[in-house]
Every structure is written in structure tokens, then in C-alpha cells.
Amino acid sequence: MRDAAYQRSHHEQLCVFSPSGCFGDVVGHHVKVAGLSGMGVKAPDYCVIPVCHKHHELCESNVIPKRHQVRELLNYWLERLTQEHGQAKAVDMMGRAYWAALP
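RESULT FIELD:
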């Protein structure tokens, strides 16, 4: 299920690849993560990062490598969790989520 308010919130943020200024309006880019997306299945809303149109094109065409997209997704979530819970709790939450996701 898509969260329209969450998706719109990305338009009010700066591009994660160039926060000092970018190429046009900011949109939400769904980072494709193994196990969460695939052929005909869009990644969930929590795998969205704010990017400008130019960087969105570069992500979609894999000019910006997947590892950089995932790194920015993790940084984005760490920043959001830090703002809400403080740095120590945010790091703990991210670590627990990482270990829980391992096979």
C-alpha cells in the first residue's frame, strides 16, 4: 500500500546526492532492494529517497551504482531516526534491523 502523504513529503526535501543545489524539482526514488522489489514489483515506500529529476534518471539507468543508492537510503533513514530518537537509539535501531534482515 502506498502512503501518498509520505510520497509528497519528498518534494519538500533536498536531493540526497547534492543537497547544496541540484537539477530541478525533487521526487521520490524507490531504491530497488533484493527481496523487497523485483520484476513488476516497486520497492516499498520506506525504500524511497529524495532526488532531483537528473539524479533520478541516473539512478534508474544505474549510472549511479546500486551500492551508492543503498548507502544514501541508509544515511537518509539514520538521519530521520536520529532526529526522532537521538543518535544512540537510532544507531541501535539500525543495527537491530540489519541483523534481523540477515538470513
